[in-house]
Records
---
Amino acid sequence: MRKWMVIAAPYVWLLLFFLIPFFIVFKISLSESEISIPPYTPVFSLSEGWESISTKLGQLDFEKYAFIFSDELYTSSYWSSLKIAAVATFLTLLIAYPLAYGMARAPKEWQPTLMMFVILPFWTSFLIRVYAWIGILKNEGLLNAFLLHIGAISEPLQIMNTTTAVYIGIVYSYLPFMVLPLYASLEKIDGRLLEAAEDLGSPPWKAFWQVTFPLSIPGIVAGCFLVFIPATGEFVIPDLLGGSETLMIGKTLWSEFFNNRDWPVASAVAVLLLLVLIVPIVAFQWAQQRAREAGR
Amino acid sequence: MNTRFTWFNVTAIVLGFAFLYIPILILVIYSFNESKLVTVWGGFSTKWYAGLLENEQLMDAAWITLQVAFISATIATVLGTMAALVLVRMGRFPGRTLFSGMIFAPLVMPEVITGLSLLLLFVAINFDRGFWTIVLAHATFTMCFAAVVVQARLTDFDSRVEEAAMDLGASPVGTFFQVTLPIIAPSVISAWLLAFTLSLDDLVIASFTTGPSATTLPMKIYSQVRLGVTPEINAISTIMIAFVTVGVLIASYMTKLQSSRMERDRRAADAAAN
Amino acid sequence: MTASPTINGPAAGASPAERRLLRTAAPQSGFAPWKDPSKQPIIRFENVTKRFGDFVAVDNITLDIYEREFFALLGPSGCGKTTLLRMLAGFEKPTEGRVIVEGKDITDLAPYERSNINMMFQSYALFPHMTVERNVGFGLRQEGMPEDQIKARVNEAMSLVELGKFAHRKPHQLSGGQQQRVALARAIAKKPKLMLLDEPLGALDKKLRNQAQFELMRIQEQTGTTFVIVTHDQEEAMTVASRIAVMNQGRLEQVSTPGEIYESPQSRYVAQFIGDVNIMEGKVVSLPGDGTVEITPASGDGRIFKAGACEGLFVGQQVWLSVRPEKFRISLDPPQSNVNVVKGRVDDVGYLGSISHYHVHTEAGNRVTALRANSSHNVERAISWDDTVWLEWPAESAVVLKA
C-alpha cells in the first residue's frame, strides 16, 4: 500500500521529532537537577523495566512546579508575558488595520505590489529587523539624536531596555502577520455591499462600522492569534530590546537553560508555557476550521 | 471594493510602509558609514564589507548556515509536500486529527519550546549535537510551513485533473509525477524557499540544538549584537537583506509576467473563437 | 389542475420530441438492442448501492446498457447520476452490488486498470502544463506505445474533433469550445469500448452546446463506441440519447427511449422533469374495458376525464392525469363535447413568436398552461387577458400516472 507509505513518512517524522520530545520535556520536568552532563538525574528510564517505572511513578513529585509557583520571578514572568503580548497585539491591530484597509481599497493593479512589500520584511531575518531598532532607540541613537536636534527634548529619552522598546519590537516584527489576514478578509468584501449600505442611507463612516468592520472580524481574529501566540513565547525581542525589568517567559526559560543550566526547571517552565498557550492555540485552530467551513 | 487611491488610503499605506522600511533603510545606510559610531555619518565607505571577507569565523558560520538551510529545506519540502497530499487527498484515516494538529501546532509554537524539546530528545537518544541536529530540527519545524504552502495550492486545484490521468491509465505514482507535481511545482518551489529562509533566519532553535562544533550565522550575529551595534553587523545584514530582496523581487516579477501572459492568451483564445 | 413548468422548460415544449422524431427517422431507427432478449448488455449494474456515511447516493440500482448505445443518466444534482458514472470509471466503489462490463466483473478494479473505459470530465480536467498534443497522447503514452504510433493516433483523434491546427497550444490558449474538443479527443484517442461523459457540455453557452451535441452524436456513430452521458439538461438528453434513465434520490424512475419518456412518463416526477406538464389529481370512477379509463377530478364537480388506461388500475384508486401544454386546444367558444374539457379565465399571455403561452385560471381554482401556435391561418380572434376560454384535449394525449 503506497498510500500508507505517503502517510507514514511525515507522520512518523512528526511523532518522533515533534510529539515525543514534548513527553521528554514533561518527563525531565519531573527529574532532579544535578551539576553534571546532562544536568539532570532521570527519574526513570525505560531500561529499568515496567515494575520499577510503576513504583517510581508513585513517587513522582511535582517539586519543580511547586518551586515555580512559589517563586515570584516565574509567576510574574508568565503574567507579564501575557500582558505584553496582549497589549502588543492590540497595538499591532491598530497599526495594521488602516494599512490593510488602504491596501484592500487601492487600485486593483497596485495590490499585488503592495502585498509583496508587506511580505518582503517577513522574508528578511527577524534578528536583523530587531537589531535595526537598537541603533534607532538607544540613548545615543538616531531617534534621540533627531528629537534633540529639533529641540523636542532636552535629555535623551530612555526607550532602549524598557518595555516600550519591547512593544515597538513586537509590533514591528509581527506587523505582516496581522496585515495579511486582515487584507485577505477586507479584500473579499464586495464593494456593492458598501454601495448598498450608502444607498440605504448609511453615511460612509457608519457603513464602515456596520458593514466593513463586522465582515473583517475573521481577519482580525486570525491576525490577533498569529501575533499573540508567538509573541507570548518571544525571546529575541525582550532579550535584545528589553531591560532587566522586562520579564518575559521565553527569556526566563532561555536563561534558566543556558545560564543556570537547570534543565528540569527549564522543562517545567516550558510545560507551563505550553499549558498557558494551549487554550489560544486550540481556539485558533477551531476558528480557522470554522472559517474554512464557512468559506465552502 | 471600490478601489482607488483616496487621501486616507495613501496616508495609511505611506505611514505603514514607512514604519516597515525606515529601520531597514537606516541599517543599510549606516553599513556604508566610514565612522564606527552609528549615529555619526563619517562619509561613504565600503570598508566594513571588505572586513567581512577577512572575518573567517563569520564566513564559516555563513557557510554552515547555507548548508543547513539547503539540506533541511530539501527534507522539509519533500516531507511537507507529502503531508499536504495526506491532508488534502487522502480523506479520513485513523489518527488524522492528531496528524493535522502536529502540522499546524509548530506554526505558532514558541521557538523556545520547540528548541528545548528537540534538544532534550537528542540528549535522550544520545545523538551527537552539531550540524545534523540543527538540520533535523530545522527540517521538522519548516516542514509544517512547507506543508501549509503546498496544501493551499492542492486545495484549489481540481482533483478531476488527477482523476483524468488515472482514467487514461496512469498509476497513482505516475499521476503524481506526470500531473500533480508539475502543476503544483510553483508552490513546491515557494515552499522550499520559505523553508530555506526560515532556516537561515533561525536563532533560537539552532542555539538549543547545536553542539560546540557548529555555529550558525544568526548565532554569530546574536553574540555580537549583544555587545553592541557595529557597522560590520550592518554590513552583513545588508548583504542578507539584498539577497532576499532580489530573490523576492525576481520571483514576484516572474509570477506577474506569467499570469499576465496567461491572461493575454486566454483573451486571445476567446476572441478568436467568437 | 396544477401547471408544473420544469426548471428547463423549453421555449417550444414540443421541440425535443420533434427533434427526437427527426432522429428516429434516421438510419438508427431500428436500433433497439434492449428489446432483443438474445443480446448481452455491455454494462450491467447488479443491485448497486453506494452510501457516503448516512447518505445513500445510489440505492439498489440494476441496469443494463447495450453496445453502441448513447445512454443518458438524467436527473437533478444529487440524484446519484454522477456517482453511478464514477463507479463505471472506477473512482467510486459500490458499497453493495457488482458492476460488470463485457461480462467481466470490474467492481474492484482501479481506474487505471480499466483500459477499455475512458471518461470526459466535467469542466474538462485538461492537463494545464501540457500542449494539446501531449494531452491527447497522454493515455497512449501510459500504455508505452511507440512514439510514431502515438503521433498517428493523436492526429486521428484530433482530426475527428477538427482540432488539428491547435496541436501545440496549451489549454489556457484555447476557447471553451476548443477545450471541450480536446477533452473529447483525449478520451477517444485510446479507442475505448466505453466512453463516459460527465456533464460534457455544461460549460458551453447554449448555441455552442447545440452544435456540440450533434458533434457528439456524429462521433459516437462514427466510432461505434458506447457512450454513457451524465446530464441535468433534459433537452440535451432528449437530443443525444438512444435511451434515458431518469434518476431521483439514488433510484431509477424510468428507463426508456426519449419518445417514450416524453409521451408516456410512468410517474409525476418523470412527467415534470421532462418538458412542461399540467398535472391534476383524480380518482378512477370506471374502467369500461375498452382500454380507456374514466376519472373524476379531485376538485369534484362531477366532470369526467377520459384517458388511455394503463395496467393495474382499479376503481376508486387515486391517480394523476398529465397533459402536456401543447395537447390542449384552447378556444373562446364552448366545445360540443363535455368530456375532457375545463373552463377558465386567461390570467397571463406569453408571446414567444411562433407560439404563445396561456396561463389559465380554471373554475376549479387551479392554474394550467396551454400552448398555441401563432399560425397566420388563425382566423379566430386573438385570445387575451381575462378572456373566458375552454381547454379541451383528446383522450389519447392524456397520461394516467399511478405515482
---
Amino acid sequence: MGDKKNNTARLREIKRFNNKKYREHTKLSRRKNIEPSQYLTEMKSPDSILEIENLCTYFYTDVGTVKAVDGVTFNVPKGKTVGVVGESGCGKSVMSLSVMRLLQEPQGQIASGEIRFRQSSENRAVNIPNLPLKEMQKIRGNEISMIFQEPMTTLNPVFSIGAQLDESILLHNKGISKKDAAKRSIEMLELVGIARAEGIYKGYPHELSGGMRQRVVIAMALSCNPEIIIADEPTTALDVTIQAQILDLLRDLKNKINASIILITHDLGVVAEMADFVVVMYAGRIVEQGTASDIFHNPQHPYTVGLMKSRPTSHGQQEKLYSIPGSVPNPTDLPDFCYFKNRCEFCMDICGQKYPPLYKLSNTHKAACYLCKDEKSKFEGGVFSE
Amino acid sequence: MRQYIFRRVMISFIVLIGVSILLYALVRLMPSDFIDMTTAGNVKMSDEVRESLKEAYGLDKGIVEGYISWIWSALHGDLGISFIYRKPVTEIIAKYAPITFAVAFIALVFEVLVAVPLGIAAAKRQYSKMDYIIVSFAFMGISLPIFFFAQILKRVFGFYGLDILPVSGMLTARATYVSFTFTKLLDYARHLVLPISCFVITSVGGLLRYTRTNMLEALNADYVRTARAKGLPEKKVINKHAFRNTLIPVVTMVGGMLPSLFSGAAITESLFGLDGLGKIALEASYRADIPYLMGFNMFLAILTLAGTLIADILYAVVDPRVKY
C-alpha cells in the first residue's frame, strides 16, 4: 500500500516536472524577433560543415525522462560520409532528427548542446537548436535534407509524385516557374535511375514498389542540391538486391553534388562500404569513434567488438551467430557507471566507477572504455595506423 | 466509373425492395390502426361500420396481401393517399420536402463548417487548453437531449427570455401575405436560427471528434514529417498535407450523415413548429397513417442509399488510391 502511494507521488512529481518543461519549451518556441546574435556562431574546425557538440536530446515521458541522446560530439567534414551505427533504440535516429529539429515536440526537446552548421548560402555559421523556425525551414530540404527509413509511408498518398517533388523545388528556389520545376523534377527522377520518369512524375506513390519509392524520396532529398544528406536507415526496409543499388546511387550522387552524408544504420556492412568516419553509439552516448579503418580493423570498445562479431560472414563456418549477452539498460533510469558494464566480458573493478570519458587513441580514434585508459600508451606513436 | 454507378443504382433498387418489405411488415405490426384510433370513444360507431371503413382504407387485408398491392402501385409511382391529409403521399412529400431539405442542408453546411475547423484546431494543439475546451464543448453537445436543449434555447432567446428570436413557425403571421422580398427572406432566416443552431450544437460533436482523431493520426504520419523535412511552413504542412488525408474519412462520414439529418428533423421540426416532412412523420406515426409512413421511410431509405453512393464517389475524388 505504502509502495503504491509512493509510486503515485513519484508519477505526479514526474508529471509536474514534465509540464514545467513543456511550458518552458512552448514559451521558447513562441518567442518572436530572435536576435541573430542568439543563433550565429563560429565553426571550430575549418573543414567541417556540421559540428555536433555535447548534444543532449531528452524525452519527458510519463514514466520519467528518457535521455535518448546524452552528450554526443562529432564533426561532419565537407564531402565526407559519417556512418552512425548502433542497435535499435540507441538514439541514432533521435540524433538525426535533432539536427533537422523534427523531434516530436514538446515531449522531445534538445536539452543542451550545440549543432553548428556552416550555412554557405548566407556565408555564416548557425547554431541549429537556437534557430528560429522560419530560418530552420530555409535550411530543411534545402541545405540539409533527410532520407527516411520507411519508403512505404514517407510519401503522401494523396499527392502525385510530381507534385511532391515540385513542392520542395518551388519552395527553395524563389522565382522558378512551375514548368522549370517540373523539368527539374523529371531530371531528378532520371538521375536516381527511374526509367519512364515522365510517367512516374504523373503517378501516385501507391503505384510504385518500395525500391522505387525510396528512389523518389532520394530524388526529393537531392532536388535542391543539399550540403548535407542525412540518410536514416535508407535501406532497412528494402530487400538486399535493391539495397546495393540504393547505396551505389547515394554514393554516386554524393560525388556528383559534393555533399556530406550522415548515414545512420545498424548494418555494419553498409557502413564499411560507404563511410569515411564511423561513430558507434550505445544507449544515447558515443562509445567509440574513428575513421572507418580504425573501427573495422582495430575496434577498441568491447561493444564495437561485439557488434563486429555478431555480423554474419560469408566465408566463416560459424554455426550460430554471435550475440551480445544481456540487454540495454532501462533508458529512464541509467546508471552512473558505464552503460555496457553488465553485458561486458572485459568488465573490471574500475567499471563500477563513473562513466568513462572518451579516451583518445590516435588523432582520429576515440573510445569510452577504461580498457583504453591503460592501453593508451601502448598505442601511441603511430603504431595504431593501418 | 459510369458502369460502377449504374451497377450501384441497380443494387440499390434491390436493397430498396428488401427495405420496403421490412418497413411494411413493421408498420402493419403496430398495435393499433388508423380506424380504431380515430373512432375510439365514438359510441355511435358500430362494429359493422368500422369493418367497412377498414375495408375502404385497405386495412382488412393481411400483411402479405397489403404489401403486394402497396408495392404494385408504388412501382407505378403511386404511394397511396395519406389517411390524415387525404392527399396523395407523393404530393405531400413533393410539397414539404424542400423545407426539410433546406433546413437539413443549411444545418449540414454549418455542422461541417464548425466541426472540421474546430477538430483540426483541437488536433493541432493536442492536450492544450484549447483542445480541452473544444472537446468538452463537443461532449456537451453530444450529451444534451435535443428536446431539452430546444426548450432551453426557446426560454433564453424566445418571448419569455431575451425576446430576440421567434420560437416556432416559419414566418411571422404578417409576413405570410407579402410577396417574396428581402424582408421575407430575413424573416425566414430569423425563424430558422434556433432550430438550426439546436440541431448543429447537438449533432456537431460526433463529426468534430472524428475530424480530431483523424487529424491526429495524419499529424503523426511519416508523410507529415517528410513535409516538414522539406522545409514547408507549418501552415502548409497542416492545411495541405495533413488535411487532405483527414478529408478522406470525413467525406465518407458526411455522406452517411445525410439521412440522419432528415430523420432527426422529425423531432426538431415538431419542437419548433416547422412545416416539414419530419413533423408530419411524427404525427403520422402517432395515428398510424400507413401510406405516409411508408412513403416517408422509403424516402429516407433512398436518401441513405444515395448518401452512401455520393460518399463512395467523393471517396474516389479525394483519394487517388481508390478507382472504380
